[in-house]
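@channel sequence for tomorrow's demo:
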Amino acid sequence: MCGIFFSLGRDAYRSPSEHVLKLLRNRGPDSVKEVRVEIEVLDPALDGSISEPLYATFVSSVLALRGEYIVTQPLVDEATRSVLCWNGEAWKIDDNPVTGNDSEHVFSLLLQDCEAGFDQDMVVQSMMHIKGPYAFVFYDGRRRRLAHDGPQVYDLCPDRITAKASHSELQTVCPGRNWRLVEINVPFKETQAHRDTVIRLMHPHNTEMDLSIAYALYFACRGIGVTDDAATTCIHDYATPARVLLSGLGADELFGGYQRHATAFARRGYQGLVDELELDINRLGKRNLGRDDRVLSHWGRETRFPYLDEDLLKWALAAPVWEKCGFDQDLSDAMEDEAAALEPGKKALRLLAWKLGMRGVAKEKKRAIQFGARTAKMEGGKMKGTQLIE
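structure tokens (generated this afternoon):
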């Protein structure tokens, strides 16, 4: 086994301490090498200009057991400046025994992925072809200019995970349409640059919850992010030319999607639920529409609200509440009928999505936009939503 070390610094290269370096040498006594890479970071808040770089440090020690000569690590591809630190043994690749140095074979495999349009899914698929114990650090040098502010952090956001799953379902259900998923990654620094503008747009609303919701809508409507090129599977910058944005506002208020609707039903039955829904509908204009419209319209786009269409609204308000949600549903049939076990909030809409083949969407848990997009954490994460903006 070898030893591997990786660090990423904002202001300088971070080499291992003497203690860590000694441990690395103990694991790999045949060679030790350090490689440093300066990563140029594009900052969208500065119109795509290069901001402060990141400093990547790779260190590998080698215990040479495979091949006729010592292959020092980290491995570096001069053409792409890609780097591999490999710790382990690749006994087989695609059930074919590996002869010679296994780290070189793995590096070659990953470089092929780079040529095909490298992404995280491709790495997972490639690694599944390898038999043997291993750990590794791989850097795709072609992308020295996905990246800014750690895009892997954005991929962990709940709404990003949901968006990718929903995008996949849309492609399956409607394969004839070109569905483009635009990933909008907004670093904290950029939100601060736009903070005053967002606060002015959402006025007279002035709570931390309003601000976190407005952030998500503001940057989503701007429509600047990255997307996959369907032809080459490469990720590239993208700015939408769309002039119309669709909003799902009204779905929760009409079909009982909030947790407080379930609470109202549990306390006072259908009458309590009806009263809570009526309260939400009556304050939509004051509480949501004004704020959302001002924030979304800032980017010269028109927002349309399908759930507030007059005909749909008239039908939904006249329909019995038990036909729109399922808070009194009998779950005894859930073992035999998956649809019966769907979340009761917005049950009518969930059943419709289920019928249309969007079963992942139908099962998705209700999540407030400020938490799904993680904008609620932008201002510190510990503030209450009702707290006034300072």
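heads up for whoever presents: Confidence is low (pLDDT under 50) at residues 44-50, 147-151.
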